[in-house]
Write a structure and sequence with these properties.
5 strands; about 100 residues; alpha+beta; five-stranded mixed beta barrel; globular
């Protein structure tokens, strides 16, 4: 019986939070953070001099401050055509720019 009351109170508290919203003064996530997209795919084309990359037929720019996780060395030695990667993008004009890459085995 006590468990049932505790579960009911937890559910009521959660529902009140949904209806009333966050408490006053609660930190909000900046709007820019909502624009981040996480994807994965295979590199079809790579041109580091122009800062362009094509992944699964989608064209992207490569951010000047791109971070590469899971690879050693510089950008040129870490990425190659046919490699499977995971990546995040941020808006950059008419195209998205890749700002972080994870290499996969």
């Amino acid at each position: 019986m006590i468990k049932r009351i505790a579960v009911t109170l937890c559910l009521l508290g959660a529902m009140a939070g949904l209806v009333l919203g966050p408490p006053a003064g609660a930190a909000e996530v900046p709007a820019a953070d909502y624009n981040i997209n996480q994807r994965s795919g295979t590199i079809d084309f790579l041109n580091l001099e122009q800062g362009r990359i094509v992944i699964d037929d989608g064209q992207y720019l490569i951010s000047d401050k791109v971070t590469i996780n899971g690879a050693h060395g510089n950008l040129r030695s870490a990425l190659r055509k046919g490699m499977r990667i995971k990546f995040t993008t941020v808006p950059a004009g008419q195209r998205n720019a890749i700002d972080e890459i994870w290499t996969t085995p």
